[in-house]
Structure formats: structure tokens, C-alpha cells
From TrEMBL:
<keyword id="KW-0378">Hydrolase</keyword>
<feature type="domain" description="DUF5597">
    <location>
        <begin position="387"/>
        <end position="524"/>
    </location>
</feature>
<keyword id="KW-0326">Glycosidase</keyword>
<dbReference type="InterPro" id="IPR040719">
    <property type="entry name" value="DUF5597"/>
</dbReference>
<dbReference type="Pfam" id="PF18120">
    <property type="entry name" value="DUF5597"/>
</dbReference>
<dbReference type="Pfam" id="PF02449">
    <property type="entry name" value="Glyco_hydro_42"/>
</dbReference>
<dbReference type="InterPro" id="IPR017853">
    <property type="entry name" value="GH"/>
</dbReference>
<dbReference type="InterPro" id="IPR013529">
    <property type="entry name" value="Glyco_hydro_42_N"/>
</dbReference>
<feature type="domain" description="Glycoside hydrolase family 42 N-terminal">
    <location>
        <begin position="50"/>
        <end position="198"/>
    </location>
</feature>
<protein>
    <recommendedName>
        <fullName>Beta-galactosidase</fullName>
    </recommendedName>
</protein>
Length: 559
């Protein structure tokens, strides 16, 4: 059997290792039901390959593999894996267990597999389609099915590594109320807070995310009510207590499922989460209710958002990292939040448009992301916005993966279309490396400034006063300034456009850039594909071509 895909620690984070080499995920997630049909997928593989993906994320549901209790059918899964292998794509499987993707024999047995019950608008209780996480029968049946899938993957794919990661469950949490109010849930809520949770919050107080600390500060000051305190006496009465209660118990459910699966085949595993959204931390024009809302129950209560992230990292055993699904929230802030406790960043769901595509460079360049994945690409009619981005990223992936392991060696950035009514919060990004301060700005243009994205990677310093950088992307310019106190002048020694040799995969020089492309040595311009000349009759800015360039800079002393 081939070496199992795994995570390897670096100086900065962790990287995914596939076939014994670091692997950068250029992924896309399909609509929830797409993987239920090998025939449907067979028609789709050519268009996915054309999008320049290297990884596809798709759901495998409990109902799909165990249509009758104890009788497993992996035929559709096998067809999908084989076809993905044939076209050269890797897979990340998303296990849909405790949601409404459970088999009919589970749905028809509410006595054995009780549902979560939620408070309705009149204060009464209503039964939902979601299994309650407080019932061991449901937990163990889900875990058995997941373990059977993982065992089958090991037997049929262990020597190929077509499947490189797995996500147990999907966007856990309670929607429509702040907590489960079924009989067993109420019983657990009335009992003492588990000692391991209190001990963790006390001992790790300084390391907790600020959003969780803000919720818990009164309880911390009062020693969480002492030994044997109830949930309300320890943390107060309110939505944040309900959310904490659900988060802790969801980690126990997911841990049981993940542990059973890893015992059969220990692929890297992660959980993804719908974000809380109240419009205050948004970089979009959408109203707050477009994202569900900012209160537990408006978004799935108990999921691994910033107010519960520490709980998931600590208590979700055999889950290697926690992930955000990012659509409406401020992208950079979410990336920073999910690097909490130095866990690796992976974004399994994000916007599938050009606005979303520009943002992958920030995640990968500044937060060492394992990769990113737009959601729902199989329902796109026409070109995918990520196609050109992934083509460019894959062409420099070896250099990117190397830079991710070196502290402060790379930064990523993006610039959206200029809007008068919205301030350009992402106008400048700065990297200090190789003895120079490198500032990424919107590219010079005579007319209206356009959108942009990219990476600046510090390569090496061949001399004391000389450093070399790789610029990747378009619509930006790199401005250099020496950090040496005695430096009197900083200049561009050379600026060359690079292209990838398709035979070797290595970068080769295409042409030397100077003059207008450096504004006479002031900065290195990486223009966009269609620069706006603003009616100016002289074409002093060239359009983007390869979108890869090497810039060598130097400094001189006074005199």
C-alpha cells in the first residue's frame, strides 16, 4: 500500500503530504447530491478537468452506502473514485451522516434514533429531521457506517491515494434554536458541566480566542461557579451558554465517528462550519439576514465558530483541524481566526465567482493555507472564475509550497473593483524579508485602477545588498525599500518576465522588463489583462501575459 496521505509540520504550520510530496489543493466542492450518481459524475469529469482543478470535494451520504441496516453498497463510490483516478483528479470525501442524509430505516425509527427538538415561535417544541447528538444509538450507528466506508477506502484505494482527506459530518449545529431541547438534551443541560471542560477553560484561559473569552469572562471571574456547577451557574443564562453546551456535545458525537473511521484508515480529517454573520464583519453589500444571522440558531448553534473554536480544537478527537466556510464574512479576518492555535487553514467552501477567486491568494500566501475550494461549481453554466487562477497557481505550486515552510517568506493579497462608496481596506500589503520592505499596491494605470491579486515570494539574497523576489499575479505593483539604516538608495537591478516550460515545469526567462514596466525604476508593475488607458493616446502599460516575474533589488550607501 502507498504511503497514507498525512499532515507534516513545518516551521510555519502544516502541509498535506500526498505520494510523499507536499500537495497544494486547487479544489472545488460540488453540490451536495452530485456524488450520489457515478453516471452523473461521468458526464461532469471533463469540465472539472478543464477548470484546472486538482481536487474535487463531494459528499458521500449515509443513505447512499447503507440503504438497509447492516447491508453496505459502495458501488457508486467505487465508480466515482475510479473515474476520478482515470482523469487524474484527487478526491476529498464529505461524510453526511447525522443530517437529513440518514437512511430511511433511520428516519422511520425515531424511538431508536431520536431527533433534535427545537422551540418554535409559540414556545412549544417541534421535532426536526436532524438526529439528536445526545443519543448513543445514533452516534454508534453513524460511526459504524463511517468506519465501514473508511475500511472500504483502504481496501480499494489505499494503494492509489485518490482520496486524500475526509470530512466527518457537515456544518454541525442546531438551526432554528440555540440548543437541542429533546429529553436527553434537557437532562444533560441540567447536569454539572463536565470537569474536563472547566479544567480546560481555566488552564488555557490566556490562549482562548478573544470571542470565547468575552462570552466567558463573568464565569471565569467567579471560578465558573465551583466544582459541580450547572451550565447556567457556570456560564450564565443566555444564548452563548446554549451554544457552548451544544459545541461540547457535538465534539463528542463527531469524535466517536472520526475515531471509528481512523481506526480503519487514518486519512487526515477535518470539520467545516457555517459562520456567524451579523453584517458587521462583512466585506459584502448583503443584508445581515442573508447569512442566517449573528445569534446561535440563526447560524448552526454549536458549530466551530470563533466563540467555540477552542472547544472543537480541544475536544474533537481525531479531527486534525477545523475549517471555515466563507461566503459573506471578511475573508482575511476568517483566515486569521482559523489559524488560531497554529492549526492549518483549509477553506472547503467559498464563493465561486471572481471575487472569491481573488481571495485564494491571501489564504495561500499569507496564511499558509493547504488550499481553497469554491462551492457548487458543477452547476455553473459556462466558464469557472477559478480556471485561470488555478492554472497560474499550479504552475508555481512547488515554489509556493517551499515558501509556505519559511517564516515571513511570502505574502498574498487581493484588490477588488474600486467602488467610491466602499473604502479600499485591502489597498496595501507589506512583506519584510531579505532586508527589504516590499509593498504591494494596485498597479499603476492612467485610467481607472482595476482589480488585482497575487503573491510576493522572497527567494534569496545573492549578495549583502541584493535580494531576489518572485512576483505572481496581476493588477499590482511591488514597491521596494531597504531596511538597512545606512541605505541611501533602493533600486531595481533586474526585472524579468518568466514562463513555465511545459516539458520541465521549471521557470524560464521570456523577456526583460524595464522602462514603462518599472516607471523608470520606481517599482515593478504586474499589470492586469486589460489596463485602462483613460483615453490617453500612448500605451504606456502593457497587458498581463504570463503573470510571473522575477525582480532583483539592491541598495546603495550614502555617497
Amino acid at each position: 500500500m502507498a504511503a497514507i496521505p498525512h499532515l507534516r509540520s513545518t516551521q510555519t504550520s502544516q502541509q498535506l503530504i500526498v505520494h510523499s510530496k507536499p500537495y497544494l489543493i486547487c479544489g472545488a466542492e460540488l453540490q451536495n447530491s452530485s456524488f450520489s450518481s457515478g453516471k452523473y459524475m461521468r458526464e461532469l469529469w471533463p469540465s472539472l478537468v478543464d477548470m484546472n482543478l486538482n481536487t474535487v470535494l463531494g459528499s458521500v451520504s449515509w443513505e447512499m452506502v447503507e440503504p438497509e441496516e447492516g447491508l453496505f453498497d459502495f458501488s457508486e463510490v467505487d465508480r466515482i473514485i475510479l473515474d476520478a483516478r482515470i482523469v487524474g483528479l484527487k478526491l476529498i470525501l464529505l461524510w453526511f451522516g447525522m443530517s437529513n442524509y440518514v437512511p430511511p430505516w433511520v428516519k422511520l425509527s425515531p424511538e431508536r434514533f431520536p431527533r433534535a427538538r427545537l422551540r418554535n415561535a409559540t414556545g412549544g417544541l417541534k421535532t426536526t429531521e436532524i438526529l439528536s447528538p445526545f443519543h448513543r444509538t445514533s452516534m454508534e450507528a453513524d460511526a459504524r457506517a463511517f468506519a465501514a466506508l473508511m475500511k472500504h477506502l483502504k481496501e480499494t484505494d489505499g494503494s492509489h491515494n485518490t482520496v486524500i482527506m475526509v470530512q466527518p459530518e457537515n456544518e454541525c449545529g442546531i438551526l432554528g434554536d440555540s440548543r437541542d431541547r429533546s429529553e436527553l438534551a434537557n437532562k444533560a443541560f441540567g447536569e454539572a458541566v463536565p470537569g474536563e471542560l472547566i479544567d480546560f477553560l481555566r488552564s488555557d484561559w490566556e490562549q482562548l480566542h478573544v470571542d470565547l473569552k468575552n462570552n466567558l469572562q463573568p464565569g471565569y471571574d467567579a471560578d465558573f461557579g465551583g466544582k459541580g456547577a450547572s451550565w447556567t451557574s457556570a456560564f450564565g443564562t443566555g444564548l452563548h451558554t446554549d451554544e457552548l453546551f451544544m459545541a461540547y456535545h457535538y465534539t463528542k458525537f463527531v469524535s466517536t465517528v472520526a475515531t471509528a473511521g481512523k481506526a480503519e484508515y487514518p486519512l487526515p480529517m477535518f470539520c467545516n462550519f457555517w459562520q456567524n454573520y451579523n453584517g458587521k464583519d462583512s466585506e459584502n453589500d448583503f443584508p445581515w439576514h442573508a447569512g442566517g444571522g449573528g445569534c446561535p440558531g440563526d447560524y448552526p448553534s454549536g458549530g466551530g465558530v470563533s466563540t467555540t473554536l477552542d472547544i472543537w480544537i480541544k475536544f474533537a478527537e481525531n479531527i486534525d483541524f477545523i475549517c471555515p466556510d466563507v461566503y459573506l464574512n471578511d475573508y482575511t479576518s476568517i483566515c486569521k481566526t482559523y489559524r488560531h492555535r497554529n492549526q492549518p487553514l483549509f477553506i472547503p467552501e467559498q464563493r465561486r465567482d471572481e471575487r472569491g477567486a481573488r481571495r485564494i491568494w491571501k489564504a495561500i500566501g499569507s496564511f499558509q493555507a493547504l488550499g481553497t475550494s469554491p462551492f457548487g461549481v458543477d452547476s455553473l453554466a459556462g466558464e469557472c472564475a477559478y480556471k485561470s487562477h488555478f492554472k497560474l497557481l499550479k504552475s508555481v505550486s512547488e515554489l509556493v509550497l517551499d515558501a509556505q515552510t519559511r517564516p515571513d517568506a511570502m505574502m498574498g493579497f487581493f484588490f477588488d473593483e474600486v467602488k467610491v462608496e466602499i473604502s479600499d481596506a485591502a489597498a496595501t500589503d507589506i512583506l519584510c524579508a531579505g532586508g527589504f520592505r516590499v509593498r504591494a499596491e494596485r498597479a499603476f494605470t492612467v485610467g481607472k485602477a482595476g482589480p488585482g491579486f497575487g503573491l510576493v515570494i522572497y527567494m534569496d539574497s545573492p549578495a549583502e545588498n541584493v535580494s531576489k523576489y518572485l512576483l505572481v499575479g496581476e493588477g499590482f505593483q511591488a514597491v521596494f525599500e531597504s531596511l538597512t539604516p545606512e541605505a541611501d538608495y533602493t533600486g531595481i537591478l533586474s526585472f524579468v518576465e518568466k514562463e513555465v516550460n511545459p516539458a520541465t515545469g521549471k521557470l524560464e526567462t521570456l523577456r526583460r522588463l524595464n522602462g514603462d514596466e518599472t516607471r523608470s525604476g520606481r517599482f515593478a508593475i504586474m499589470p492586469n489583462e486589460d489596463p485602462d488607458y483613460g483615453g490617453f493616446p500612448i500605451s504606456i502599460t502593457i497587458p498581463a501575459r504570463t503573470r510571473i516575474a522575477e525582480c532583483t533589488v539592491y541598495w546603495l550607501k550614502k555617497g
